[in-house]
Structure formats: structure tokens, C-alpha cells
Design a protein that fits this description.
- This protein is of the alpha+beta class and about 180 residues long.
- The chain folds into 2 domains: about 80 residues, SP0830-like domains (Alpha-Beta Plaits, 2-Layer Sandwich), CATH 3.30.70.1280; about 90 residues, 2-Layer Sandwich (Alpha-Beta Plaits).
- The chain is built from 6 helices and 8 strands.
- Helix 3 crosses helix 6.
- The chain is globular.
- The two termini are about 15 Å apart.
Amino acid sequence: MSKYVAFLRAINVGGHTVKMDQLRRMFEDMALSNVETFIASGNVIFNSTSRNTKALESKIEGYLHKALGYEVATFIRSIPELADIAGYDPFIGSGPNAPANPLYITFLGSPPNSESTRKLESCASDVDTFHIHGRELYWLLHGNFSDSQFSGARLEKVLGMPATVRNITTVRKIALKYS
């Protein structure tokens, strides 16, 4: 049995409120075990006998769409994958002891194609720096969030694919807790 983390888009944002005990029950109803949530932003940790994460993502997305009445893009990572993501330092000095510049991880279903990557790179500025590594986009923000022209929705539009964004602190806490 493998342990996974599902990063869900559109949970407790944009008027979509879901209580974490309700979300845990939904995952249990899908025959997933040892279900936990980590903060109320759509981070669900669970065990499954399945090794096919794409099939798990589809199963969860279908179930949540039916149960909640709206699409919930789902991005699953194994605990070893999450540890690698949390430990990856794409920008010199963005590691765990980095200064105050916020680092965000954008989870994607697949690596973006070269056209989308070029489009994103052309959007870099003094405020926003981007780095794609596999199925993750690392977004370093120089300054305040209000200084940026980016959001999860804009990143999705530029990349042409669904995505969900988490602060690196959240990703590292989950990786540390379950590694």
C-alpha cells in the first residue's frame, strides 16, 4: 500500500467551501484509507493499493465533481516525489533557510510543452521568476503578492492547463510529516 498526497484545486477558495471532515469521508467513500487532511486548502493524504496515479486522479476528480457539483482538478504525488519537490532548490538561496521572498509550487498534471514554457518565461519580471521542473512550476515572488500580476488562474491561462498553487512552507511541512 502506498501513501499519496492529493493537491486539490478549488477547495475553500472562490466560494467553494468544503469542511475537512466531509472531504475525508468522501475519500474514505472511494475506498482510500488512512485519510488525513492538512490545513483547509485541499491537501489530502491517503493510502491506496493503486500504483496508477493518473487513474487515482481521474477517480477522485469524477467523485468530487459528482459530490460537490463542480470540477476539482486533482494532482497526486507520492511521498518520495513530494520529498524531492520540497528539497529542490531551483533558485540560489530559495532553500528552507531562504530569506523572505515567498516561493510557491504550482502542481501540474504533466510537464508543460515547449510553447507553454516559452510563453511563461516571457512573463518573468522583476517581481515574478519561474522555473519548471517536471510536473511542477516553482514561482519565486520578489516582494509582496500584491506586486505580482500572477495568480493561480493566470498561471493556468498562460500554461494552458489546470494547476493548483501551494506555498513551499506547506509543501515542506507535509513532506516532513510523512517522509
